[in-house]
Structures are given as structure tokens and as C-alpha cells.
Specification:
Shape: globular
Number of strands: 9
CATH architecture of the domain at 45-74 and 97-269: 2-Layer Sandwich
CATH class of the domain at 45-74 and 97-269: Alpha Beta
Largest sheet: 5 strands, mixed
Distance between the termini: 65 Å
Order of helices and strands: HEHHEEHEEHHEHEEEHHHHHH
Strand content: 5-15%
CATH superfamily of the domain at 45-74 and 97-269: THUMP superfamily
Structural class: alpha+beta
Helix content: 40-55%
Length: 357
Amino acid sequence: MATPLQQPPQPGGGKRKGKAQYVQAKRARRCEGGGPRQLEPGLQGILITCNMNERKCVEEAYSLLNEYGDDMYGPEKFTDQDQQPSGSEEEDHDVEAALKKEVGDIKASTEMRLRRFQSVESGANNVVFIRTLGIEPEKLVHHILQDIYKTKKKKTRVILRMLPISGTCKAFLEDMKKYAETFLEPWFKAPNKGTFQIVYKSRNNSHMNREEVIKELAGIVGSLNSENKVDLTNPQYTVVVEIIKAVCCLSVVKDYTLFRKYNLQEVVKSTKDSSQLNPKRAAQAGNGKEATLESGDKSNQNDPAEGKNNQQVVPENSELKQTEQVSETQVINEGAAKPELTSQVAEGSESNENDLS
């Protein structure tokens, strides 16, 4: 009986690699010296939602972030690999010191090749994550939105929301509680205090419960300082919770309502309210009136301010205008309470026409 012919050995004496081995080697080459290629715990960056065109979104993000990053932190500096930091020659005689020096040189050369902004796989459609290095994401994004809010100049076409991510952890309740106890201290631990709200969004994740997460995080904020209070109308801080697969992204941002949930397209359309143009008057009027001015209709944003000006110019009609002003404020409060409440409490299930994430 004829025996089957044996295949000739592959050159090099090894067996033919399977497809999985090739894929792993390819990923290893991509990750070598370039940092992580997908969203994972321990990263900082910027989470960006887009409108069905992720490649164009990444291009716009690089252009926008480099423009404002150079403005805040100066031009990005690149160093050749040959200019690596070297230790003293005396330590070369010691094997242990030489080994530590070699490890340090490898780490230093890796950091030199890392860019200030690098796109990584987010794990969700229409979502881009830009890893940042050596910058503070919340300050950079706030600076971008503040400039767009003032100039009303549209600088992007496909980018919708741009959320800074100051930290990431595993998307399990115990891991999130342990991480948040330390993460939230700079904003809410005594003597620091402030009003806050929590917004929650989950993508490609079914094991996390929205109500449990919000309840636990609110309890942690309250335990850091008893003077921290919940304010769904005009909070000083907004705790952003973005969960994608098994990764939880956290950040604490300011002016979340003013900047239209950090939506670049809506900020360009929005009008400047009088509370931001005249901060002294807003402070005297109180947080309640400032919130009504931000959340009211565009046609009614300047009515309270105009009523106040008319009251000062024509004192004999002060009583009539004061009653009109009170009635207008009540109408705005009644009309704005519902959308603000739904925007904070039902953030995870909102259906925004522009945000397809």
C-alpha cells in the first residue's frame, strides 16, 4: 500500500504559521513604540462622536487639536532616537545598573516616538478616541469650545461632540467605585466643593446598570464633602460617564449646559446669553436666573435683562415692569425645567438627531 507523500519542510526548519500567528505578529509590530492601539484602562484622551465618517472625523480632530494644542502648550517637539539620555559611565561596570539603564533607555526612546495626539480604536461605531500625552484634556477641550462659542466660527463638519476623558478604568461597578474615590478628589474633596450632576452613556455594554452607577458615584461625591449638592439646572461641575464595552471613561467638566453638552455644531448655532456677558449681574441675580437664561428660548434670553434696564431708566413704571419680569421668569422656568431634567436623568437613552453615536 502506497504511503502518502510527505510535504517538504519549510525553509528555516519551522512549520508554516497559521493565520492567527500572522495577525498577532502584525499587531505586535503596530504597537511597538507607538503606544496602545485600542481603548483600555489607564488612558487619557478625548472621546469624539461623528456623523458616519470616522476617517474624516480623525482628520478634523488632528487639525483642530494640533491648532489649539500648539496655542496652549507650544509646538510639538520631536527628538531623534540617537539623542537618548545616557547614564554615567561608572555605572556600566555594574551589571544591575547597566540593566536598569538599558530599560530606561528603551522607555525613553518609546516616549520620544509617541505623538501628542494619537487615534486608537474606540470599540464603537461613529466614536473616535484620541489618546493624549503631556496635556490636560479637560482644559484643552474647554478652551476649544470657549473660543468657538465666542467667535461662532464653524471649524468642523463631521465632528459632533468632543468630550475630554481624564481617566479610564474597567467597566465593572466595584472597579469604578474604587477608581472614582481617588479620581473625584481634586474637584469634590474638602475643602473643595461644588454643585454637580452626573450624565451617563453606555455603548456595546449590557452588564452595567445606569441607575446603580449614578447612585454609587453620587454617594462618593457626597462622602468626599457633605456640602456637595446635586443641581440639575445649572451645576458647577458635570461628571461624565462614558462606557464602551468593558472600559469606563470618566471626566469632570464645566459649562456642560452652556456649551450644549460639548457639541461643536450646537455651540456655533447658540447665542450668547446675558449672564455670560455680564457675570457681575448674574452673580447678583443668583443661580436661578442664570439657569433660566441658559435654558430658555433664544427669543426670550435677553428679555429679563431688557426689563431690568427699562426699570432703571423709567422708575415710575417700575412696579409694572417688575411684575412683567417676574411673570416672564416664571414662564421660562416652567418651560425649561422639563428639558433640563430629561437631558440629565435620561442621558443614556436620549435620541439626538445630530448625535448618531
